Every structure is written in C-alpha cells, then in structure tokens.
Amino acid sequence: MIRYLTLYKYFLRFSFSKAMEFRIDFFFRFLMDIIYYVVNILFFQVIYLHTPILAGWTQDQMILFIAGYLLCDGLNMTIFSNNIWWFPQLINRGDLDYYLIRPVSPLFFLSLREFAANSLMNLLVAMGFFVYALFQYQSSFTMLDLLFYLFLLICGVLLQYCIQMLFVLPSFWIQNKRGLIDFFYAIALAGERPDRIYKGFVRILFTYIIPLSLVASYPARFFIEPFNPWLLVHFFGICAFFWLLMLTVWKKGVSSYSSASS
Amino acid sequence: MRGFSSIVAMELRKIFAYRTDFWVTFLGQTLIQLLIARSLWQNIFETNNVTSMQGFNLEMMTLYYLLVPIGVRILAGQNIGFLSQEIYDGTFTRYLIYPVNAFVYKSITYLTHSFFYCIQLFFIYLIFHLFFTDMPLNPQGLFIGLFVFFIASVCYMSMSMIVELISLWADYIWALMVMLRFFVTFFGGGIIPMDFFPDWAISILKYTPFPYLISLPVKSTMSLIPLSETIEGLSILTFWSFIFFGIVSLMWRRGQKSYAGVGI
Q1: Extents of the domains making up chain B
Q2: Which end of chain B has fewer beta carbons closer than 10 Å to its terminal beta carbon, N or C?
Q3: How far is A197 from chain B (nearest CA, A)?
C-alpha cells in the first residue's frame, strides 16, 4: 500500500511539471471546464424559469444535485479521464507491453499515472460551488448527512470510472483507436440529469444497463429525500457488480492482448 | 472543377471507410441524446400538466432534439484539429505545394463532411415523419432548412478556422475549440430551444451569430418560422461569414511568418 502511495506521489510530481510546460494550454483547459460548469448551471436556471419543480426537486435542491455532479466530474477529470482517454491507443500501438511488465498492478498504473493538474483547479471551483449550494440549501441537515453524501459521491465517481473503462476495454478486440469512448461521452449526459425524469425502458437503461444515473442522482436523493434502504442496496449492488465486471473484462482483455500494433 | 470533385470523392471514401464510427456516433449522439432530452421535457410537461410550452408540444420537441445533434455535426464538419493538428505536426506544408489553395482544399474537405451529414438529416427527417409522427411533412421547409444548415456550416467553419489558426502562436488550441462548441451549442439553442430563454437574453443574442447557427436552421427545417425570417437570418449569417473570413485571411497572412513547418 505504501509502495503504491509513494508511486502515486511520483505521478503527481510528474503530472504537475508536465502541465507547467504548456501554460497557455493549462489556462485554456481550466477556462473550458469553467465554461462547461457555467453552461450546466445556466441550463437548469433557464428550465426553472418555466417550471417550479423538476423531477420532484425545487431549484435549491437541484442546485445541490448540480454541485454534486460537477464535483464527480471534477474528480473524474482530475484522476481518471486523461488516463482512460489514452488507453485504446496504448492497446492499438502495442504500447501496453511496457505497462504489463512493470512490477506494479498494470490497471493501477494505467488508470492513475496521469493526474490532470488543470482539472484540479476546476475541482477546487466545483468544491466552491458545492459549498455555495449547501449554504443556499433551505432544509436542515447534519454533518453525518453531508459526510454520507460525499462518501456516496466518491462511490459514484468509482462507478463512473468502471463504466468508462467498459467503453474503452473493447479496444482489445475491436482494434479501434478510440474504443467506444466517443459513445461514452455522448451518453454521459444521462448522468447530468436527475434520474426521476427517466421512465420505462430508458430508466432501466440508465439505472441498470449503463447506470450513469446513479453516479450523482442517487447520492443527491439520499441527501435531499427521506432514507430509502432499497435505493442504497441498488446503489451499492450496481457499484459492486460494475467493479467486478470491469475487472473481469480487463483480465479477459489482457489475456487476449496480442501485443502487435494495428 | 475536376480538382474539386476529386477532393469531394476522396473525402466521401474516407467517411464511408469508417462505418463503425459512423454508427457509434449516430446512435450515441443522436438517439441516446434524444431519449434524454425527451425524458426531460416529458417530465416538465407532466409536472406542469400542460401539452405545450413556448409553442412546442412533445412531438415538436422530439423532432427538435432529433435535428439538433445532426445539425451540430453539420456545423462541426470535420473533427477538431482539421488545421491545428497539421500545423503542430508540420504536415500543413504539403497543402502549400498542392495545385489548389490550402484554404480552398481544407474548406472543400470540411464542407464535404457537412454535406454528408445534410444527407443524413434528410433521411432521418423523412423516417421520423413517415413512421413516428402525425405531424405534416413539409418538403419545402426541409429543403430550405438543409440549405440554411449548409450556409450555417460555412459560417461555423470560418469561426473554427480563426480558432484553429491560433495554433500558429499557441501550444494547444483543443480546449478553445471545445469552448467554441459549448458557446455555439448553448447560445445557439442546441441544449434548450431559444424560445425558452428570457427576453433580455434573446435581444442580446440576436446581435451575435449564435442564434443563426442552430436555432434558425432547425426551426426553418421544422417550418416554425416564416420565409422572411429565414431570409433575414441567412443575410446575417452571410454578413458574419464575411467578417470571420476576413479575420482568417488576416491571421493567415500574419501567421505564415511564424509557421516554421517543422511542428512541435
């Protein structure tokens, strides 16, 4: 464990020095994420001009949900996203060999080696917005409620990581230089909307098959609404299942990896 | 003219060569996003117990969100980096020795992609009207809409070229291009129809090119606006395109001096 923490410290040091090499790009990326946040907030502001309630939530409750998913997005972008982006290319070029032969877990190395320093700045902004959302939230809550909400959001980030990985791992078989990552980015929008808007097949799709709706929506429901044990079982059940599924697909993929580039 | 058709044919061959990418993009960006948007608006209509808002009922909203992702693809033409990546790689030099002007060549390849997505939009519009709705099909609206989309893609291409050419001076401009897309998609009515924006925002936005890039062509295709408004919008689009191409020309003249042709 200590060995892995030390290794992660080196990843951080390397990532920061790399980010500082391209300062204009660093600034542009920071600005890009800020605009993404603003667009998301404006979207719901415009919606609430025309409806007092959306998916059973008032505007202050919705702001808390938005803050939650921006926090998840910030964490995902900072820790995992860059690494996942390069993953299919490593497989395609046969560069995965260099990671498989190192004396550390290849999945750990590949998932965490690049820390997005610019996204860390955005994560701080997202945290600031989260604090603002808590201050303007009109119902009372305890510190335990808040800690539980944050814990569930972290689980949500791990769930999102597993889903995202499941979209790039097919690169082991389909020889596509980007895997299905573009498809993932197109449907990631599903997690940016409250889960209650989905009904019928669409609900099954986004809460069981590609459970992006659980990432930020379920944690917000635990914070905002009365405790629902079934929801908790569903949330942790899906998280555990997708974690195991991702590990299984990863192992299958590595065993069928030919090391030849395409 | 032969050169023009050769470039178009070559680009179409490239598009058709990546069929998996085509279907993944189509399914992901169009159908899934449509499902998400429809679910959202259905919930809003049901919560407020209404059948229409700001002139849109659920069927019209469905068609709107079906047209928007394809419309955005028409605008976006080629992927981000169609100029900048080659400048960074130093491979832009090859266009300078082609028998066609580099920017004409790049414009043709870009607009070939836009044209391809126009055809896609044509068929999707027809399929929607034939199988999924009772709304009347208006061929005139469809053709006018496609024409407006194509002109909008020329305007968006000129805006993209400005950002792409910044690569002659800056390290990476990928994030700037994504920002441009965020602005165009949101302020152009790609995320929410502009009719839902507050009046003060609409009155400001009409002085920018954004409403004419997505909202105008989508609403023209759906025959939601009179022909006179479409023509007025087209004139504004043309005006903006001239301004942006002027800036592109100025930037290229200055930028050529700093283009080393070796990449970074």
Answers
A1: 2-258
A2: N
A3: 6
